[in-house]
Amino acid sequence: MVNRFVSRVVGAVLVCLVVLVSGCSSDAGRDVPGWARSMDTVKVSALPGEARRTLRRIDDGGPFPYEKDGSVFSNFERELPRQKRGYYREYTVRTPGERDRGARRIVTGSGGEIYYTDDHYASFKAVLR
Fold first, then answer.
1. Are strands 125-128 and 41-43 parallel, antiparallel or unpaired?
2. pTM, two decimal places
3. Staple partner for 113: which of 40, 63, 71, 109, CB 3.0–4.6 Å?
4. Of the candidates 51, 52, 70, which has an alpha carbon nearest to the alpha carbon of residue 61?
């Protein structure tokens, strides 16, 4: 009886190790660009509809509903990789029910990076297309 229990426990541990090792060595990160590998990511399709609309406006070059859209994002919080001033631009993501610009933004980098924050720059997710 003890041998059966030990065999089952050892078998379960081995299965867990196989799953863990195969998951760690998988190519799951293969589609993630280098600039996004050290942070949380979100696919465009998982963004709120307002963020997807803001991305379309960015892709189209405007028009933008807020005066500050397209302005330099200075990265004072240092949540994004350090770059020269002017590298990052920020765009407002409308927040339903907010009377001002709200806390949601998309920040783009000159190298094609796209970041999303819903907590006014306290944290960012890399946006994957």
1. parallel
2. 0.76
3. 109
4. 70
- In the chain the first and final C-alpha atoms are separated, in Å, by 54
Number of domains in the chain: 1
What is the C-alpha separation between 86 and 32, in angstroms, rounded? Answer: 25
Domain with residue 64: its CATH number is 3.10.450.30
Determine the length of the chain.
129
Does residue 48 lie within any of the structural domains? yes
- Per the annotation, the verdict on 98 as an active-site residue is no
At position 10, the amino acid (one-letter code) is: V
Q: Is 50 a catalytic residue?
A: no
Which region, left, alpha or beta, applies to residue 92 given φ > 0 means left and ψ of -120 to 50 means alpha?
Answer: beta
* Active-site hit among 50, 77, 98, 120: 120
Give me the catalytic one of 50, 67, 79, 90: 90
Domain limits for position 65: 34-127
CA 51 to chain centre: 12
